[in-house]
Amino acid sequence: MIAENFNYDSPSTLAEAFQLLHDYGDDAKILAGGHSLIPMMKLRFAAPTHLIDINNIPGLAYIKEEDGYLKIGAMTREADLEESDLIKAKYHIFGDATKLIADPQVRNFGTIGGNIAHGDAANDHPAVMIALDATVVISGQDGQREVSINDFFYGFYTTAVQHGEILTEIKIPAATGHFGSAYYKAERKVGDYATAGVAAVVQIDGNGVCTKAGIGLTNVNPLPMRAERSEAVLVGSKLTEEDIALAAKYAAEDCNPSDDLRGDEDYKRHLVKVITKRMLNQAIARAKK
Ligand SMILES: Cc1cc2nc3c(=O)[nH]c(=O)nc-3n(C[C@H](O)[C@H](O)[C@H](O)COP(=O)(O)OP(=O)(O)OC[C@H]3O[C@@H](n4cnc5c(N)ncnc54)[C@H](O)[C@@H]3O)c2cc1C
How far apart are CA 59 and CA 73, in angstroms? Predict the structure, then answer.
């Protein structure tokens, strides 16, 4: 199918983009990598009258550690994450996740900001961000505000980004000490969305006790989901096999998968249990290196 007619603007500053969003009102949409928005327009699930392309605004693509945070600019491409030495050295979870997203063509253009702003529980970065306890920086004509990832996803394709605003940065507490992270999703074939995916993060102290745990789940709940009961089992634990198994069991019990072409509810709960266990063990092994 062919998209409905639309007007196109390509501002070169954020101020210009905010003004365009203000002028065009509710019918305008931001265009980042275009790999979720354009397919939706072609299927006529979305029919914005104006596209505001933010690809020509400088300064929105970066990966850096600063002030105790890993900061990722919204226009950072999946391919940039895959190739970043900082990410490869300290934040293995992104390497795990990006290589499972679509194919190289999509990853060369799709952005981290778009992946999250799209508000789809089937996308991989939302669960990763939940596990990493991210903060989303949202900018508008009146300045910036920060929203915890816990309060970011409102509903199907709906997030805390309001009309007139642009997601500009994602902030993640910088990895220090014995920190490990991992992500995996089961998929029907390479490039597919998750049948079920799990992001796991652990921080371990000098005595082998877990001081922080993050577990995010992909595509097994209407919204990207934090496995809170599982995290609570792990914090304060020596991360024994029994505790890891209990955390995996709770994640499988607490998610809300639906039957669809990718599998039925029982199968998806089983996947969550198995992958949670594996990702926790992977994150722990990385934390101990
Ligand atoms: C064949 C195919 C397979 C895919 N497989 C996967 C997969 O396995 N896992 C996965 O996670 N994703 C997958 N995707 C989606 C892909 O990762 C998209 O690139 C991503 O979801 C959206 O990022 P984008 O930069 O392309 O955003 P766009 O498509 O440009 O935008 C998506 C939405 O977010 C809004 N938006 C974008 N950027 C901003 C911003 N900075 N501020 C505010 N709003 C913004 C847009 O207005 C739009 O509503 C796949 C896509 C395709 C085409």
Answer: 8
Residue matched to tokens 């226009």 = 75
| Closest ligand 1 atom to 40 CA | 29
Sign of CA dihedral 161, 74, 181, 267: positive
Q: How far apart are CA 233 and CA 249, in angstroms?
A: 11
Scan for tokens 């939940």, then name that residue.
130
Per-residue pLDDT reduced to its tens digit, 86-135:
999 999 999 999 999 999 999 999 999 999 999 999 999 999 999 999 99
What are 129-159's pLDDT values in tens digits? 999 999 999 999 999 999 999 999 998 899 9
Q: What are φ and ψ of residue 98, in 5° steps?
A: -65, -35
Pocket of ligand 1 (CB under 6 A): 29-37, 39, 74, 101-102, 106, 110-111, 113-115, 117-118, 123-125, 161, 166-167, 191, 193
How far is 120 from 157, CA to CA, in rounded Å? 6
With contact defined as beta carbons under 8 Å apart, do 154 and 144 qualify? no
Helix (H, G, I), strand (E, B) or coil at 130: helix
User: Per residue, what are the HEC states of 153-216?
Assistant: EEECCEECCCCCCEEEEEEEECCCCEEEEEEEEECCCCCCCCCEEEEEEEEECCCCCEEEEEEE
CA distance linking residue 285 with residue 169, whole number of Å: 30
Q: Ramachandran region of residue 137, left (φ > 0), alpha (ψ -120 to 50) or beta?
A: beta
Look at the alpha carbons of 182, 104, 122, 152 in this order and tell me if their dihedral is positive or negative: positive
User: For residue 223, what are its two tokens?
Assistant: 């919204």
The rounded Å distance from CA 209 to ligand 1 centre is 38
Sequence-ordered list of residues with C-beta below 8 angstroms from that of 184, at least 6 positions apart, any chain: 96, 100, 197, 198, 275, 278, 279, 282
Predicted structure pTM score = 0.98
Location of structure tokens 């949202």: 138
